Amino acid sequence: xxxxxxxxxxxxxxxxxxxxxxxxxxxxxxxxxxxxxxxxxxxxxxxxxxxxxxxxxxxxxxxxxxxxxxxxxxxxxxxxxxxxxxxxxxxxxxxxxxxxxxxxxxxxxxxxxxxxxxxxxxxxxxxxxxxxxxxxxxxxxxxxxxxxxxxxxxxxxxxxxxxxxxxxxxxxxxxxxxxxxxxxxxxxxxxxxxxxxxxxxxxxxxxx
Length: 208
Known about the structure:
This protein is of the alpha/beta class. Helices cover 50% and strands 11% of the residues. It has a single domain, classed as P-loop containing nucleotide triphosphate hydrolases (Rossmann fold). It has 9 helices and 5 strands; from the N terminus they run βαβααααβαβααβα.
């Protein structure tokens, strides 16, 4: 199935957003990026993937200072990135990689403020996946092997981390409907049903 759109997936923890994004990419026959971006960033920077994995989608309070003193200059490359914490280095690298990918292909990407990074791309479709807390706790216990006694706390903490990350790097509020083109409650949907809804929406956009 052909697709002339780049789709970003923002998701609550435990909502199934990763699975939906991966299945959507397969349905549309386009690349899928999530943890793959970490591997690409690690290869480009020489930093261990395990180090970037620990820093993924977590904000620090240092990048704004770095911007203000001129350590980070996108137009002139990344020669000063060694002065930045690993979280900021990963964000900058992923920002660069996402922008470069968008110049040559359509794809589905999960998280990483990709909707903000590509905000000026005319082919962008921004999706937000959410679900009720009970279903997210169940998924966390079943899929992530989280202790049921602390599952709710883990789910809420993961959402808070994602919200802080998104707000820090984009200046926008994570999960606010105004930031997205389509918001889907996955509580009572299978992955396949959610994909079908997104594909139908994209078909409508393609006919405009």
